[in-house]
Amino acid sequence: MSDQDISQVKKGGAMAAEIKDDSKLIVSVSPHLRSEESTSRIMWSVNAALLPATIMSVYFFGPSAAMVLAVSIVAALLSEYLYEKALNKKITISDGSAFLTGLLLGLNLPSSVPFYIPVVGSVVAVALTKQLFGGLGFNVFNPALLGRAFLLLSFPKLMTIWKAPTAAFIAMDAKTTATPLGILKEEGMNRLLEIFGNKLNLYVDLLFGNRAGSLGETSAFALLIGAAFLLYRGYITWHIPVSFLGSAAIVAWIFGGQGALFAGDPILHLLSGGIILGAFFMATDYVTCPTVLMGQVIFGIGCGCLTMLIRIKGGYPEGVMFAILIMNCFSPLIDRGFRSKVFGAVKVKEAKQ
Amino acid sequence: MPLTFKGGIHPPDKKELAKDKAIRIAQAPKQVVIPLSQHIGAPCKPAVSIGQQVKKGEVVGAPQGFVSSPVHSSVSGKVISIGDFPLATGRMTPSVVIENDFQEEWTTLRDNPDYLSLPADQLKEKVKDAGIVGMGGAAFPTHVKLSPPKEKPIDVLIINGAECEPYLTADYRLMIERPQDVIEGTKVLMKILGVAKAFIGIENNKPDAIEILTRAASGSPEIKVCGLEVKYPQGAEKMLIKAAANREVPPRALPMDVGVVVQNIGTTIAVYEAARFGKPLIDRVVTVSGESINEPSNLMVKIGTLVSELITECGGFKTGAAKVISGGPMMGFAMYDLNVPVTKGTSGILALPEEGLVHVDDYGPCIRCGRCLNACAMGLMPSMLSVLSEKGFYEEAKEYGLFDCFECGSCTFVCPSKRPIVQFVRLAKSMVKP
């Protein structure tokens, strides 16, 4: 509103006709106050929360890790841009969600994959899983995980060559080895202890990430730093991570042992594989998890139990990815079953009885 | 544990702009536009004709039917026009325009210091004749609220001093400037309703108001002042009843179904003035505030004064004023024309700058983050309501409690995609029957 308008309003007052034209006032519906939170701020915060894990992955796996991550992110952004351009939709690459999908996909790949693997994965994740279903908010499956599932089923060999962590930026030709869960599955607990020395060493190496695996899943410690940030900022709540990890730990303890019940090692199962990455960063994806908090607990328990079912009885050493994808299918159903309770509704039932 | 309800939000309260400004009597306007429908219910019939002289407090609109309320002249002078004029909401409403002769000549006002010994029926009649309606914004005729059907006994009166809308300080000023009148009004209301217990609920961000009213009520053990958690929408009837009396009003039911009547602070003082002096509701306190107002103020304004005059009185707009709101920022209306009258339900006039405003057409898809579910005081799923309404599934929206929503705007406040959720709800409500 210009100064002239203001003076007009100032002298307006008494006579209605004088300031008939208030056309410069903005008229919109209530509420007129909005919080500062925005979708892109949330997405970029989650990206930032993955920074410690990203740094650790480059530290342990060297330049090839950085390459995989970069290719994956660029391919995800390009997929989003080209798809939206082709369909004449609003370009949304700056909202951070495609970046996040690319980053998460990269963190879920081994460091040894050739460059076209993250490209294919990102295209499947962003263009097929997300955009084809209507874009952000409409996808049924977690895009990064479906991208990875596609890669695992299409390139089973390439997707399971694991480099040993070298923790040196220049070492280009690290040995290939198996992941701790792979060893546990194929050769058993004793072999695992043989490799890592003793149980304490095993736990410490798992905690800090000195082991073979996908880029981002190895350092539980770095992931937990990011998770603490997300919890502190309220971007995720405890419901899914706690129910996911808790149920997995219980199943691991009861059924994870060899030969006897209640002989499993829950700590080993929680620290290895992608369960921490999955529980805090993938299962909590807003779009593909239930929205009602009670439903989120059910969702988390489903993820935890399915993960352990696959790890113990399934054909793959690791089950986090399939567990989350399977539970993604149930999210809408869970939301329907666990509707929020309308204020005062219980009292009505009591009154009727 | 502070008293509260589940859900809700914490918008910046912005009350510091006007909270220390004592209530000041606004300049008398040259003319007033008095709408014949300032309340929920049947509009009034004009009781005057063009050219007629009226006194201050004279009835200019006679109520039609029980759920209706008379309107009175707020000035003495001459009726110069009767016709349709816009309200703050934009709706054209039959109104009486009176030219002020500045004589301030009242109809007969009589002080009756013994008002509390009058029978309840007579007191209620006085409230009705004074044209008192809920002054918190909804403007429901007060005498109707005070006439619950026999099968719904009332045992608790709650006075709503929460004033949870940001910026607004009108009730706050009344509480600290006229605490005794609040208590007296409460006693009148208790007598009319025949209840033995009353709560005055005030948010804890107004500790001085809590203290002053507690002191004022010290001689009346039946009136309890309670501090409520600072949370929007603490002043919504159902939320207030939950917090102060720990009773939950069932969906679609009214406070009277759980034995409670809620009255606003301004209304309570108006009831006192009607009971004691027979004074009709012809003025009210309006908070004029916002970042784009030069001198935020709390003004005692004659009903029918134009909003543009209040803005002039408060030093006009600062450069960059972009939006003017009638009411609070959460539930008020953005105005397109400032030449609309203050009515009995106008609690505030706010001028806001463009920065920070979210344009309604600039929203993204629902990312199902669930923030609105946790913010909803009614326990609804606003995300589902907005998506269903957006896609035209209005009937389906009813299954998600469409008509339980009272449009407080908490969901829309927290939505990171800036979706106009409340507006989607309004759309759906207009498309289907409850």
Uncertain runs of chain A? 1-22, 347-353
Number of domains of chain A: 2
**Order of strands across the main sheet of chain B:** 1-14-13-17-15-16
- Beta content of chain A comes to under 5%
| Assembly of the depicted chains | heterodimer
Name the chain pair whose interface involves the most residues.
A-B, 54 and 82 residues
CATH class descriptor name of the largest domain in chain B: Alpha Beta
What does this structure look like?
- With 353 residues, chain A is mainly α.
- Chain A folds into two domains: 39-177 and 188-219, no CATH class; 230-340, no CATH class.
- Helices cover 60% and strands 1% of the residues of chain A.
- Chain A has 17 helices and two strands.
- Chain A has helices at residues 3-12, 39-49, 51-61, 63-86, 97-107, 116-130, 143-154, 180-187, 189-196, 199-208, 220-233, 239-255, 266-271, 275-282, 293-313, 320-337, 345-352, and strands at residues 162-163, 176-177.
- In chain A, strands 1-2 form a two-stranded antiparallel sheet.
- In chain A, helix 15 packs antiparallel against helix 16 (320-337).
- The N and C termini of chain A lie far apart (61 Å).
- By secondary structure, chain B is of the alpha/beta class.
- Chain B folds into three domains: 16-109 and 280-353, Ubiquitin-like (UB roll) (Roll), CATH 3.10.20.600; 110-277, NADH-ubiquinone oxidoreductase 51kDa subunit (Rossmann fold, 3-Layer(aba) Sandwich), CATH 3.40.50.11540; 371-431, no CATH class.
- Chain B contains 13 helices and 17 strands.
- Chain B has helices spanning 120-129, 142-145, 170-177, 179-193, 207-216, 237-245, 265-277, 307-313, 371-375, 382-390, 394-399, 410-414, 421-431, and strands spanning 24-25, 31-35, 45-46, 53-54, 59-62, 71-72, 77-86, 92-100, 156-161, 197-203, 223-228, 260-264, 283-289, 297-302, 321-326, 333-334, 348-353.
- In chain B, the strands form four sheets. A six-stranded mixed beta sheet of chain B has the order 1-14-13-17-15-16, sandwiched between helices. In chain B, strands 2-8-7-4 form a four-stranded antiparallel beta sheet, with no helix packed on it. A four-stranded parallel beta sheet of chain B has the order 11-10-9-12, with helices on both faces.
- In chain B, strand 10, helix 5 and strand 11 form a beta-alpha-beta unit.
- The two termini of chain B are 37 Å apart.
- In chain B, 61% of the residues are buried.
- Classes of the chains: A mainly alpha (353), B alpha/beta (434).
- The interface between A and B is large, with 54 and 82 residues.
